[in-house]
Write a sequence for this structure.
């Protein structure tokens, strides 16, 4: 039926099969987005987090019949666009340096290999004396560089770590990383002291996605086959589940939609982040062992709209985003940041239909190994994407 005015919610018809294939909207030549279709559930816009009112779904633009679901009465449109990004005085993100080679569009790598990921921890391995072995793992985002080294457990200190890292840097041509991510906050003192002495920024972050994937692999291929492997040996490091906290209004948009986008189009959009035209963080899913995506793979996401999209994207980028997850009990989206911080990001009315739609989005996310994204722009019609974050829902490593 026709959509009601702001403050009233229109009914969302279920769309499946061949009809679902017609749901793709188009805003520009290069950008596509659509309402989620998963498990037969049509995911509609959610509550405006700033005003606690529902906003009507955008209508098909300029009478274009391809921007509506055929015969469904649904008139949703494309939700994301491309264009130059106005940063509105917040300062520019990293720009491509003058003279820096940028190859063909398809050859631009995802992620930033000037960012290293580090883990320095005991393993479920016992030496000949029955003592736990300690290991240092270091890699870059794409895992084109990996270093593993066992260290004596009587030399676990910042001096030894710094000396080892300096040797690794020298072996890599002497170029230090721009920053180093680590996720075990219990070792914060050792890691930050070692890196500070090297004048390298240390960041506690759950975005160590490549490193975590590598740890998952090593558990099966290195640790378990080792004669000293003991599954009962604990690393002694465990994160307590965080309780979601209220998010400041300045970090909220005015409305938001569930969306999804094919991987090819999403890669095109991510170039704005790589080339410094948009805020955000991305990574290469190829480095993740449990994620296999092709150009046609649909990636679920959250599109947030705000008249102050530039400042909102800038402040959002300071939070080190890693995951967004619907919380059916709280009837809201939970934003995960840092290593173990959770925030109530956006609310929706707690109805059976809304809960089902949130579950359908979560199912779509699980279907692509937890891969999803957050996009921030002015409005559904804008050709500006002020911020884009590629996120991953995954647990911390088992070791």
């Amino acid at each position: 039926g026709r959509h009601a005015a702001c403050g009233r919610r229109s009914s969302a018809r279920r769309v499946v099969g061949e009809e679902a294939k017609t749901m793709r909207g188009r805003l520009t030549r290069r950008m596509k987005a659509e309402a989620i279709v998963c498990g037969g559930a049509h995911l509609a816009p959610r509550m405006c987090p700033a005003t606690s009112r529902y906003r009507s779904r955008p209508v098909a633009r300029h009478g274009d019949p391809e921007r509506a679901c055929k015969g469904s009465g649904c008139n949703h449109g494309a939700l994301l666009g491309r264009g130059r990004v106005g940063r509105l005085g917040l300062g520019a993100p990293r720009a491509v340096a003058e003279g820096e080679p940028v190859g063909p569009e398809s050859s631009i790598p995802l992620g930033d290999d000037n960012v290293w990921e580090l883990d320095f921890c005991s393993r479920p391995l016992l030496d000949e004396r029955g003592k736990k072995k300690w290991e240092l793992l270091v890699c870059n985002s794409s895992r084109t560089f990996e270093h593993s080294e066992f260290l004596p457990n009587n030399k676990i200190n910042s001096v030894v770590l710094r000396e080892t890292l300096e040797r690794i840097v020298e072996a890599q041509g002497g170029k230090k990383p721009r920053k180093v991510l680590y996720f075990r906050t219990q070792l914060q003192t050792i890691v930050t002291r070692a890196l500070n002495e090297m004048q390298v920024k240390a960041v506690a972050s759950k975005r160590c996605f490549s490193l975590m994937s590598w740890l998952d692999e090593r558990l099966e291929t290195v640790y378990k086959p080792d004669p000293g492997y003991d599954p009962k040996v604990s690393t002694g490091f465990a994160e307590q589940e965080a309780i979601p906290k209220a998010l400041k209004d300045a970090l909220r948009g005015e409305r938001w939609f569930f969306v999804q986008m094919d991987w090819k189009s999403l890669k095109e959009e991510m170039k704005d982040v790589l080339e410094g035209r948009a805020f955000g963080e991305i990574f290469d899913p190829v480095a993740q062992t449990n994620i296999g995506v092709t150009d046609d793979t649909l990636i679920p996401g959250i599109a947030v709209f705000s008249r102050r999209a530039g400042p909102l994207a800038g402040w959002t980028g300071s939070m080190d985003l890693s995951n967004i997850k619907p919380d059916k009990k709280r009837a809201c989206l939970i934003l995960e940041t840092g290593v173990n911080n959770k925030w109530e990001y956006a609310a929706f009315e707690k109805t059976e239909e809304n809960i089902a739609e949130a579950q359908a989005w979560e199912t779509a996310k699980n279907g692509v190994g937890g891969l999803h994204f957050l996009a921030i722009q002015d409005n559904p019609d804008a050709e500006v994407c002020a911020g884009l974050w590629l996120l991953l829902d995954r647990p911390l490593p088992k070791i």
Notes: Residues 1-108 have pLDDT under 50 and may be disordered. The longest helix spans residues 209-223. The helical segments are 17-20, 158-171, 188-197, 209-223, 263-274, 309-317, 352-366.
